[in-house]
Specification:
Low-confidence stretches: 216-221
Number of strands: 13
Radius of gyration: 21 Å
Shape: elongated
Strand order of the largest sheet: 2-1-6-7
Helix content: 25-40%
Largest sheet: 4 strands, parallel
Length: 221
């Protein structure tokens, strides 16, 4: 068996998820290297794309596993894109990273693929707030910041009046939001499925803590 050298793009080698990836790679007999992507320098040159890490040419990698935080999406995806230009396999493509950080684009892709979704409305700061609310079936409904992550910027509006106030407040700050139908039957739970080559390779159920409609891990789910 050929020993592969696999880079893990992570800002913190001590994170549990990063340590587990290192353990899994080494358990298979391969070599793991944790790389802080914010310390990578990208050199763009015709027929010779390179990356320097801490002053040294980063070469010899067979693959990379991106662990790019939402706050550094722009630079992180640029680094992944550079690895792709160097013909180094990435477990997550740069384009997929960009799409996953755009809630609206993600919903459009899922809808096109025939995946069932809560009814969602997005507008350019429309003043027709009542029509927005009615379009998703009325209150209760969910208002989400387009750039929010980890459950932050997600608000449950229990009444139409509350929904009007929340949407108008976000619009007054020029904050882009999506308005979604509230699925009461979910009872604060959702299922995350990991799809590989069109097949579900694994799944997990996230359950919000009592009294919480959000199931995000960062919100106690």
């Amino acid at each position: 068996m050929r020993i592969m050298k696999i880079g893990i793009l992570s800002r913190n080698a001590n994170l549990y998820s990063t340590r587990r990836l290192v353990e899994a790679i080494e358990a298979k007999g391969h070599e793991a290297q944790v790389i802080d992507h914010l310390k990578c320098d990208i050199v763009i040159e015709q027929d010779n794309p390179t990356i320097f890490y801490k002053g040294e040419n980063l070469s010899g990698l067979d693959a990379v596993i991106p662990r790019i935080g939402a706050q550094v999406t722009f630079y992180g995806t640029a680094v992944v894109r550079q690895f792709e230009m160097m013909n180094i396999f990435s477990a997550v493509e740069s384009q997929a990273l960009v799409r996953s950080r755009d809630k609206l684009r993600s919903l459009q892709i899922l809808a096109k693929a025939g995946v069932g979704l809560p009814k969602t409305v997005f507008t350019n700061y429309s003043k027709e707030v009542d029509k927005l609310i009615d379009s998703v079936g009325g209150a209760p409904l969910i208002v989400k910041l387009l750039e929010g992550t980890q459950g932050y910027g997600v608000v449950l509006a229990p009444t139409k009046k509350a929904a009007q106030s929340i949407i108008e407040a976000f619009h007054s700050m020029k904050a882009r939001v999506i308005v979604q139908e509230f699925i009461k039957e979910s009872k604060g739970a959702d299922i995350r499925a990991f799809v590989v080559n069109g097949k579900i390779a694994g799944a997990m159920k996230r359950q919000g803590k009592e009294g919480e409609f959000r199931s995000n891990l960062h919100q106690g789910g």
